[in-house]
TrEMBL record:
Residues 163-432 form the GS catalytic domain. It catalyses: L-glutamate + NH4(+) + ATP = L-glutamine + ADP + phosphate + H(+). Residues 99-122 are annotated as: Disordered. One of its GO terms (biological process) is glutamine biosynthetic process. One of its GO terms (cellular component) is chloroplast. Belongs to the glutamine synthetase family. This is Glutamine synthetase. Keywords: ATP-binding, Chloroplast, Ligase, Nitrogen fixation, Nucleotide-binding, Plastid, Transit peptide. The lineage of its organism: Eukaryota, Viridiplantae, Streptophyta, Embryophyta, Tracheophyta. It is found in: Plastid, Chloroplast.
Amino acid sequence: MAQILAPSTQWQMRISKSSPNATPITSNMWSSLLWKQNKKVSPTSSAKFRVLAIKSDNSTINRLEGLLNLDITPFTDKIIAEYIWIGGTGIDVRSKSRTISKPVEDPSELPKWNYDGSSTGQAPGDDSEVILYPQAIFKDPFRGGNNILVICDSYTPQGEPIPTNKRHRAAEIFSNPKVQAEVPWYGIEQEYTLLQTNVKWPLGWPVGGYPGPQGPYYCSAGADKSFGRDISDAHYKACLYAGINISGTNGEVMPGQWEYQVGPSVGIEAGDHIWASRYILERITEQAGVVLSLDPKPIEGDWNGAGCHTNYSTKSMREDGGFEVIKKAILNLSLRHKDHISAYGEGNERRLTGKHETASINTFSWGVANRGCSIRVGRDTEKNGKGYLEDRRPASNMDPYVVTSLLAETTLLWEPTLEAEALAAQKLALKV
């Protein structure tokens, strides 16, 4: 197992708070500690050195920590709004801060803003201004108080959505009366991998080497099996604080890999909540000195990839007789398999191999309780005759605006020809 020399931020804060009467480090103590550092002490001693430095009430780190935790609420009505948007790769999150004169409750109370799109790969240098439209607000777990995180989408100065603005098209689909009448619910399972900073190798893995084979790591406990729990727990609580509809978290099959679930969320809200949760996770891993990866197959070979399984249901699916509605939805999804695969995340072909709890990227399949299918239906859904389906194809780096709106479009708005429908039903053994 690789050694992480610096204790986590949570551990540093725990030590600092539990030692209110810690003795300031004198010049002799500093000299002694620095001398020990020059003697090339073990990694454990290096970690102790950092902890001792943080214990000092007069240290620069403690003064900075005090300012970061400063509650400005009693002294001003002004708040800090962190405007967040999706960058030019379609998966990177960017943000910047501005002061707002008073607390707000709705995105419509916030001003539009702009950024340099030429620096994010979203505009040319000679016409670089991109406009941010505030769309969703969350409480800021990093600054606290009345400060907020603001999910935005991006437009040209003329008001046209830029190519990486997938939220705009999703909002159009979710505002369709047919879609609204069906009240689409989503539960999204976001998997991610934690990497060591300098070597970009999974957390807890020997540098340049491999741990024991998969089996003991899924939902595990123990220093030799679970790597990054503090990050997962910090993220869980931060999301709850922010108002994100996070519903759970667990360690995944590959060591150093985790998952959290968001939902059930209705319509466009699902995408807003996933993007906000990803931003918070990026900030927490930044503080912990760990790299967040959403690569769908971070380690080649006999290791699970990282997906973003999307559970989906409509009002008709959740009511009596819903299983037949689910079958019709599966039929439509089979006929648009290529369209969905092309929109379900970059590099997904390295993950969807037919192994490691995936279906082949080239073949559409469905089954009850079968995690090796494109679409899985739960045993309870089959038994109750109503419920939801799970689309297991989306990659961990998928855009939730694209995936959720495409599921709604394919199952609620798109109609196949009668010939195609009959052929697909025969092929999938569906009676609809």
